[in-house]
């Protein structure tokens, strides 16, 4: 499976600059790149393709058949050229437009009947502009969605912002998406891309900074966005969990920007990591071992306009648990 | 094939992922697959019974959803369960609906 790294970020947040720098690293020599807007920065790379936003939704269809047309076509084309031996690549980087919600592209990778046999999500990299992000997060839901979808956040233009602004922004990012590590734009390729899918899962499992078992934090009161985590003090029934999360995301996926967590399952010594963006859940990862800390299940949500207490109650009811004792 | 859209190969639901290295799945061998299928139907029926719907397996490869008035629907992919159930029940299944949670907690 070829990993597909999604590079997203608000308009002018430095996506292309970062991409250009990453591509100069010899480690990225085998990367194919899809960009959907030709910016002013020239990209000198042997595999450049252009895509436009184009969501194809079958009119009578369901969520599994929403396909982002040109992304799918571009990836199919790359795969076809590789199969003929005309090109070779070991990863793909897709740069999205500044206003794009990353979810449809992830959905395409998962739902497309051919692509999903050749490509897998390699993680979402979100650039955040140190100077303007604070204001953008205040009134642009897209900015919050992009941050929520991130597996790693790259803080750009830190040299242009006051240091206390950067500190404040880092705190805000940690509250908005506690599951993504934050690096600065001058970090090495390895720091930016290394363990993009594994590192954040460990991060998701870590106890929160207050040492509480649960908390929620308002990210944006006007938009009603908040992060919320819960721990479950006993092994989870995988089948019931699957029914619950599937129904929850079917019904409320548009308001659930992100769900991520680590589960201690009945009859399993090793933990399972869960990773979802809106209606989409990636294939569950069977981790090799528990990260440091207690071996308890923990789920982190980034929500818009949903009462966390209802999610906790719903989880307990679906699992057949007494809420006040088992779910905190 | 997706019975709603006619697109091939939509049945790789995350709860029943194709077994491959690093992926957690009970979809490993015939016995495990059948056992998990039975558990999944029981877990879904616990919720579906709120609207008096019932899910069963159809010929070991599809799902059969039935209403108390005899309406039936056959589909292949687990991802279609809730859209199909909501169409059949006419009212939705909302896991955050307090009436439904009251009912589940009383079971």
From TrEMBL, chain A:
Residues 225-319 form the CobW C-terminal domain. One of its GO terms (molecular function) is nucleotide binding. Signal peptide: none annotated. SMART domains: CobW_C. GO terms for cellular component: cytoplasm. It catalyses: GTP + H2O = GDP + phosphate + H(+). Keywords: Chaperone, Hydrolase, Nucleotide-binding. Zinc chaperone that directly transfers zinc cofactor to target proteins, thereby activating them. Zinc is transferred from the CXCC motif in the GTPase domain to the zinc binding site in target proteins in a process requiring GTP hydrolysis. Belongs to the SIMIBI class G3E GTPase family. ZNG1 subfamily. This is GTPase, G3E family. The lineage of its organism: Bacteria, Pseudomonadati, Pseudomonadota, Alphaproteobacteria, Rhodobacterales.
From TrEMBL, chain B:
This is Uncharacterized protein. It comes from Poseidonocella pacifica.
